[in-house]
Amino acid sequence: MAEQACPADPTADRKQDQVAKAGLVAVDLHIHSALSPCGDGSMRPGEVLLSAERRRIAVVGIVDHCTAGNAKAFLDASAAFDVRVLVGLEVESAEGVHILALFDSLDAAMDMDRLVADHLPDLRNRPDVLGEQLLLDAWGHVIGTDDRLLVTATDLTIEQIARHTTDRRGLSIPAHVDRSLNGLFRVLGMVPPDLRVPAFEVSASMAPDRARARWPQLAEVCLLTSSDAHVPEDIGRAMTFISPDLARAELDACDWGEELKKELCPGGGGGA
Amino acid sequence: MTEANTLTVAQVAESLGLKVCAGGHKLDSEVVGALVSDLLSYVMANGKPGQLWVTIQTHSNIVAVAVLGGLAGIVIASGFHPDEDTTGRAEEEDIPILTCDAPAYEIAGMLYQLGVR
């Protein structure tokens, strides 16, 4: 997977300078660690958070497929960096749709982790086909491997995943909704009417304005774009820009998501 | 050949032993063809009015997709069952939902043999 990754956007630095002048800061809420089988072995706390800091990213979201097993390592390591770290999981719903569940507290993330574990099929990973799933400590040492098949669907519906995330004071964001594989629009055709989420993510290759033009349902909602990075070079290849006050706001992930929605919704938060 | 073989949803259900899960009062529509897919966006783009749709998706969005496409009904294969949200919506929207234990591949073969082309 790592070989196919796109290089970082060469204009990103210039864009970011413009954005910095406008008084905004960057967030990238979809980053995988070495615990994702498709995640590069170098995606360890130090490397990831240093890359984020160098790219002046104020808030990162660390998610792995159906597990938050490296959440503690990243939260512990975050003390040494000037980056706010949200931790969580990229859960695959029964329908085959990916949705991010992000938390600011380790307890909440691990509670969601246990719930998701109970809804995964009992299958083993094939490291020779999919890659190793490395459990790390804050210093990046390998402290174990997860041998479950994590790149697979749970039997939870997308609405259930969103509800369980909110119940644990987390922030749920359907991931790369435009993508043919595991994207909400492709798999489910349209946003389910009962899905309660503060924001939707479009993939790194899709600018939010273009997404809004193509899917009218997105016209009024909060749209994020994130890197979905699996290698350090990709961190920040797509980002969303928010106010520094929001980046620093001392709110749990659920309330933070609501504030994010207000800030990023066209017209200031009137949307879904 | 198609005219002679035109079947209603009720006749298809009876011939193939499909269980009627929702929309039982709307089984008189004619089945003019069928398609098999689990990607709802594909069905939205390619479904034709009067077709029977074979899928393993049970999410309530399947009802909306069937309404948009004017489909004759939905066959949920492989023993999957829709929840109350989905069946409730199907009742409201007059979309028959039929279930069966046979996988989509077998259902497609049986439909073809019945004359649904």
Account of the protein in words:
- With 272 residues, chain A is of the alpha/beta class.
- Chain A is 31% helix and 19% strand.
- Chain A has helices at residues 12-21, 45-54, 71-78, 106-118, 127-130, 158-167, 184-188, 208-214, 244-248, 253-264, and strands at residues 25-31, 57-65, 84-92, 98-103, 134-136, 142-145, 171-174, 199-202, 222-225, 240-242.
- In chain A, the strands form 3 sheets. Chain A has a 6-stranded mixed sheet with strand order 7-4-3-2-1-10. Chain A has a two-stranded antiparallel ribbon with strand order 5-6. A two-stranded parallel ribbon of chain A has the order 8-9.
- Chain A is globular, with a radius of gyration of 17 Å.
- Residues 1-7 of chain A have low confidence and may be disordered.
- Chain B has 117 residues and is α/β, with parallel strands linked by helices.
- In chain B, the strands form 2 sheets. A 5-stranded mixed sheet of chain B has the order 2-7-6-5-4, with helices on both faces. Chain B has a two-stranded antiparallel ribbon with strand order 1-3.
- In chain B, β4 (33-36), α3 (40-46) and β5 form a beta-alpha-beta unit.
- The A-B interface holds A 94-96, 157-158, 185-190, 192, 194 and B 38-41, 43-44, 57-61, 64-65, 83, 85.
